[in-house]
């Protein structure tokens, strides 16, 4: 731990750890010593420190751990964030050298690249979780992401259709089976993945209800079914209006006919809205097809498949439905989620109410 003065006027000191010598420099004796002592202090707090591990290597470890804890769909999104966004920017940085400014650099680069603030927040959350795991395993003594403010998400109000616009959209759909799918989506508020995961056995014909029990997802060029939903509250029972009930009955009749006429039909999956062979539909396909009909109908091109869910909730609330009922129907995990998403409707209803107050 000798302290030497270099020719350039700086002071140098060193120490050894796990067979490796580390050097510390400062413009004064005290600064060089302070850096060495800080390193030794940090070493005590991170007993498993390993200078050879890069962030990319550690993210691989984090993904292996995550694969055991989260759903397949969630894992796929984690992996994509790591491979596409985190590793290319910070992957070569040694884990022990990672600093808050690295995290801020990542955020700045992604903002400049026009990534959405929601996506950047997701990157931050995953990176922070991976680094927390490194702290817990003694590789780091502190989390460098913890000192960086989480990116503020700029919430965009979803495009919804009025009742008249919805009728225009439906009248533009010339595919009977796709019409039933869209009508069911907008009349129930189901998420796309929930709708495609519906089975005929999930329909209670006598009580005119449907149950949400599974979802359809896509990754690695494969469409698959998972027996889980987004959250516990997403598993729910939804009442059907007369028109939706009839369209579902027509769809069931279509599927029963197809089971008899299509060779090697995947009847064991029992899907209500399947591909031609009875397997699950590629989720992006139904979204792309809706986009074609939206353009054909001359409606706002910003309207998406998820907009059907927002339209369903908006029409319910504007017709006088209470927020708690809408929360349960949509399968939101909390009442706050429903209020946060549809607070603009509350304001609109409040403004309309003010207009009805008699002038004194």
Automatic annotation (TrEMBL):
- What's one GO MF term for it? DNA binding
Gene3D superfamilies on file = 1.10.150.130, Intergrase catalytic core (1.10.443.10)
GO BP terms: DNA integration; DNA recombination
- Record field: transmembrane: none
Where does the Core-binding (CB) domain start and stop, copy by copy? 53-135
- InterPro entries, from UniProt? CB (IPR044068), DNA_brk_join_enz (IPR011010), Integrase-like_cat_sf (IPR013762), Integrase_catalytic (IPR002104), Integrase_recombinase_N (IPR010998), Integrase_SAM-like_N (IPR004107), Tyrosine_recombinase_XerCD (IPR050090)
Question: Which UniProt keyword terms apply here?
Answer: DNA integration, DNA recombination, DNA-binding
Q: What is the lineage of its organism?
A: Bacteria, Bacillati, Bacillota, Negativicutes, Veillonellales
Q: Which PANTHER family match?
A: INTEGRASE_RECOMBINASE PROTEIN MJ0367-RELATED, PHAGE INTEGRASE-RELATED
Q: What protein family is recorded? A: Belongs to the 'phage' integrase family.
Domain annotation Tyr recombinase: ranges: 156-355
Q: Name it.
A: Site-specific recombinase, phage integrase family
Q: Does the keyword Kinase apply?
A: no
């Amino acid at each position: 731990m000798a302290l030497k003065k270099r020719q350039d006027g700086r002071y140098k000191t060193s120490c050894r750890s796990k067979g490796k010598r580390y050097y510390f420099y400062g413009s004064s004796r005290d600064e060089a010593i302070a850096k060495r002592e800080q390193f030794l202090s940090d070493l005590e707090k991170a007993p498993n420190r390993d200078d050879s591990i890069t962030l990319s290597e550690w993210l691989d470890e984090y993904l292996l751990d995550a694969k055991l804890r989260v759903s397949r769909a969630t894992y796929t999104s984690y992996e994509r964030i790591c491979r596409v966004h985190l590793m290319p920017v910070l992957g070569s940085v040694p884990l022990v050298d990672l600093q808050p400014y690295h995290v801020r650099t990542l955020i700045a680069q992604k903002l400049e690249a026009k990534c959405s603030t929601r996506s950047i927040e997701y990157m931050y959350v995953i990176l922070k979780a991976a680094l927390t795991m490194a702290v817990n395993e003694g590789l780091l003594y502190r989390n460098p992401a913890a000192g960086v403010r989480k990116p503020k998400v700029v919430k965009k109000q979803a495009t919804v259709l009025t009742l008249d616009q919805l009728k225009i959209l439906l009248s533009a759909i010339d595919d009977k089976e796709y019409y039933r799918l869209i009508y069911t989506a907008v009349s129930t508020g189901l998420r796309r993945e929930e709708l495609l995961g519906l089975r005929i056995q999930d329909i209670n014909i006598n009580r005119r209800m449907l149950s949400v029990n599974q979802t359809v997802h896509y990754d690695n060029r494969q469409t698959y079914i998972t027996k889980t939903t987004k959250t516990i509250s997403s598993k729910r029972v939804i009442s059907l209006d007369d028109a939706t009930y009839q369209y579902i009955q027509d769809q069931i009749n279509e599927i029963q006919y197809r089971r008899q006429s299509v060779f090697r039909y995947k009847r064991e999956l029992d899907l209500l809205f399947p591909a031609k062979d009875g397997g699950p539909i590629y989720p992006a396909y139904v979204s792309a097809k809706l986009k074609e009909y939206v353009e054909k109908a001359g409606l706002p091109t910003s309207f998406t498949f998820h907009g059907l869910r927002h339209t369903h909730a908006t029409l319910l609330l504007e017709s006088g439905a209470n927020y708690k009922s809408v929360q349960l129907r949509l399968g939101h995990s909390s009442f706050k989620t429903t209020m946060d998403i549809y607070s603009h409707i509350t304001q609109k209803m409040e403004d309309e109410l003010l207009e009805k107050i008699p002038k004194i």
